[in-house]
């Protein structure tokens, strides 16, 4: 029997492991039909060459190595990041945890300053010149206010603020809103008693000046923050201000106070010390009234008046007033305060003109030449000179106020009649060196010792700038510029027997308890012999008796003094303003036992401008009141009576 050849199997199929059952006829037909259709076969790929397979394996190996390298780098970076984070966590939580803990606490705390009550300023008798009155500042935390309209209606009559304004403030969700400042303590007690929701109060104060603008240019002012801005308020700021306290409160990072959080820490404030000045309030008032009335009457731009205790140098009154009337011209007008004055057209000067404003003093500066000549023995009060009415010096003409033929005049006559040419003749005998030395000796060109804010030491001629004409110009007060207080200091030395005493404005400090402590005083220094001072006193008496200062006489008292009428330099030019003068009188009383010295200066009076006519009457009014106020005995034999019957002899400068 012939065997049947084995049928070929499609590629990829394996022979069955078990014998299949015989198919049925139908199945056979289906199978036959199936076999009649050729089976779909996969394309057979051509075998790659061996070299291509090797290159492909090398590429796969390189790719695998690159991937492994990237993974190692990533792991290293991840490790470094973890190390950095760990180091940072250790730094924050271990090394610097105290610092961050402190910073976190600060974010929940707010420190509020508690201002200290500013020390008061008093006159020599304890009268209040300026003082701080305790008040309260009312603050609203409007996050805690549920009914702003109702609360505004209740607070408005107490705070004195319109309901509409309070409603707006209480409705703003800011967490901190100042409703009013400087609420009186009595009204603050009502607010505290009624316990308004969200309302707190902190201590504050307001500066109270009971006498209005009296002595304002000396006392000074405080600004809106209560800090000294001028005058003694500024000069003694540290002493008057005291030390502020503080209180620490809890609040959210958004600045909202926590209701349950009271003060965490409080430090009470230390009140400032007060000052007892040398000023005498009633005398200060009289001084300002007399000066102000003359400024208004004479049309002057400004005026200064000072009264001093001869022995101590204590300033009893210091007035500085300025005109408020519109002015024009090359002369700068001193700034006037905005505070109202009892005298129309006159107000307090913003600056203390007695120490901050310099001027050419004119004939009152003749004291320099006369004191130096008497002290050196170059002249005596009776030394006689043949005085012409003018001299030529280096191409310039110097003259007396009035023309006259050459006349014999004693040194006393020269001073009494204020002769420029006679003064030049006395100065010529001294020379440049002695004149300049005497200027310094009498305190010109130096600080007065007050150290007042803005104080000027003056402008003086020196040897390096000396000109031949200065030998005539300096002795009559046309070269140097001084302050009014410097002139008074020099004349006060004559009244004090030749001993120069430094002026003072502060008599003592006042502790919060009320006790007064004296301040140290500067020792005096001798600037001329007692004999010279006595001779000058008698010569200055003749100025009032027979010379240019008759209007300065005080009934019942002997007065010694000197007039001065000086031209006003043109700003920025080597010339004088036409028709513009400063009028001065300086002196002391009683001349036989001096107690008080005083000085009056008026800047650019209109019409009559001589010191004897404009300044001397003001001196007389002020000195008369002061002598009676302090109970100074009248002069033996009665006071001086001017022999000029009220007429004023014109000064030469």
Salient structural properties:
653 residues; alpha+beta; Penicillin-binding protein 2a (Domain 2); Beta-lactamase; 2 domains; seven-stranded mixed beta sheet; six-stranded antiparallel beta sheet; 22 strands; 34% helix; elongated; disordered N terminus
Please give the CATH class of the largest domain: Alpha Beta
As a percent range, the share of strand residues is 15-25%
Largest sheet: 7 strands, mixed
Low-confidence regions: 1-21, 23-40, 643-649
The overall pLDDT average reads 87
Proper CATH architecture of the largest domain: 3-Layer(aba) Sandwich
Question: How is the topology of this model organized?
Answer:
Blueprint: H1 25-36, H2 50-95, H3 97-106, E1 109-114, E2 121-122, E3 128-140, H4 148-159, H5 163-171, E4 177-183, H6 185-194, E5 199-208, H7 216-219, H8 231-235, H9 237-241, E6 245-250, E7 265-267, E8 274-277, H10 281-298, E9 302-309, E10 315-323, E11 346-348, H11 353-356, H12 367-376, E12 384-387, E13 390-393, E14 396-399, E15 407-410, H13 411-416, H14 420-430, H15 432-441, H16 470-473, H17 484-495, E16 499-500, E17 506-510, E18 516-518, E19 525-526, H18 530-546, E20 560-569, E21 576-589, E22 596-603, H19 611-614, H20 616-629
Parallel strand pairs: 2-8
Antiparallel strand pairs: 1-6, 2-3, 3-4, 3-5, 6-7, 8-17, 9-10, 9-22, 10-11, 12-15, 13-14, 16-19, 17-18, 20-21, 21-22
Helix pairs in contact: 4-5, 10-20, 12-14, 12-15, 12-18
């Amino acid at each position: 029997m012939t065997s049947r050849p084995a049928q070929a199997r499609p590629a990829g199929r394996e022979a069955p492991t078990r014998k299949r059952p015989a198919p049925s006829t139908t199945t056979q037909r289906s199978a036959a039909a199936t076999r009649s259709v050729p089976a779909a076969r996969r394309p057979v790929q051509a075998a790659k060459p061996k070299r291509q397979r090797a290159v492909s394996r090398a590429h796969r190996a390189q790719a695998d190595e690159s991937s492994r390298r990237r993974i190692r780098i990533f792991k290293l970076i991840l490790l470094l990041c973890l190390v950095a984070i760990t180091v940072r966590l250790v730094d924050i939580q271990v090394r610097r945890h105290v610092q961050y803990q402190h910073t976190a606490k600060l974010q929940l705390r707010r420190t509020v300053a508690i201002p200290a009550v500013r020390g008061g300023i008093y006159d020599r008798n304890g009268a209040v010149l300026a003082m701080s009155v305790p008040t309260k500042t009312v603050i609203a935390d409007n996050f805690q206010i549920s009914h702003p309209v109702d609360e505004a209606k209740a607070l408005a009559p107490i705070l004195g603020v319109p309901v509409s304004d309070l409603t707006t403030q209480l409705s703003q969700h800011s967490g901190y809103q100042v409703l009013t400042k400087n609420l009186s303590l009595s009204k603050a007690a009502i607010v505290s008693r009624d316990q308004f929701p969200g309302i707190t109060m902190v201590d504050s104060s307001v500066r109270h000046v009971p006498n209005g603008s009296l002595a304002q240019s000396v006392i000074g002012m405080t600004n809106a923050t209560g800090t000294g801005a001028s005058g003694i308020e500024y000069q003694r700021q540290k002493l008057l201000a005291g030390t502020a306290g503080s209180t620490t409160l809890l609040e959210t990072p958004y600045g909202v106070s926590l209701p349950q959080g009271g003060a965490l820490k409080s430090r009470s404030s230390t009140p400032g010390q007060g000052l007892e000045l040398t000023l005498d309030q009633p005398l200060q008032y009289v001084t300002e009234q007399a000066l102000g009335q003359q400024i208004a009457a004479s049309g002057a731009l400004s005026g200064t008046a000072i009264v001093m205790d001869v022995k101590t140098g204590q300033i009893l009154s210091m007035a500085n007033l300025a005109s408020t009337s519109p002015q024009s011209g090359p002369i700068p007008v001193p700034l006037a305060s905005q505070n109202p004055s009892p005298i129309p057209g006159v107000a307090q000067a913003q600056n203390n003109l007695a120490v901050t404003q310099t001027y050419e003093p004119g004939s009152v500066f003749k004291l320099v030449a006369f004191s130096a000549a008497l002290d050196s023995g170059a002249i005596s009060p009776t030394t006689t000179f043949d005085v012409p009415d003018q001299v030529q010096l280096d191409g310039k003409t110097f003259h007396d106020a009035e023309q006259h033929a050459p006349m014999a005049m004693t040194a006393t006559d020269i001073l009494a009649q204020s002769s420029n040419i006679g003064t030049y003749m006395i100065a010529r005998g001294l020379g440049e060196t002695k004149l300049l030395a005497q200027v310094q000796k009498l305190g010109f060109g130096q600080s007065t010792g007050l150290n007042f804010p803005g104080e000027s030491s003056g402008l003086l001629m020196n040897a390096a700038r000396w000109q031949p004409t200065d030998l005539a110009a300096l002795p009559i007060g046309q070269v140097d510029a001084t302050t009014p207080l410097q002139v008074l200091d020099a004349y006060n030395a004559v009244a004090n027997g030749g001993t120069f005493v430094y002026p003072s404005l502060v008599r003592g400090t006042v502790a919060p308890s009320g006790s007064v402590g004296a301040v140290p005083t500067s020792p005096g220094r001798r600037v001329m012999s007692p004999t010279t001072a006595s001779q000058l006193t008698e010569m200055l008496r003749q100025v009032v008796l027979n010379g240019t200062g008759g209007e300065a006489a005080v009934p019942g008292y002997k007065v010694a003094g000197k007039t001065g009428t000086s031209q006003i330099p043109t700003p920025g030019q080597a010339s004088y303003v036409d028709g513009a003068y400063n009028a001065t009188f300086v002196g002391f009383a009683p001349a036989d036992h001096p107690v008080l010295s005083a000085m009056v200066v008026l800047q650019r009076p209109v019409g009559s401008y001589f010191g004897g006519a404009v300044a001397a009457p003001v001196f007389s009014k002020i000195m008369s009141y002061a002598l009676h106020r302090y109970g100074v005995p009248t002069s033996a034999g009665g006071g001086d009576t001017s022999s000029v019957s009220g007429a004023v002899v014109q000064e030469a400068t």
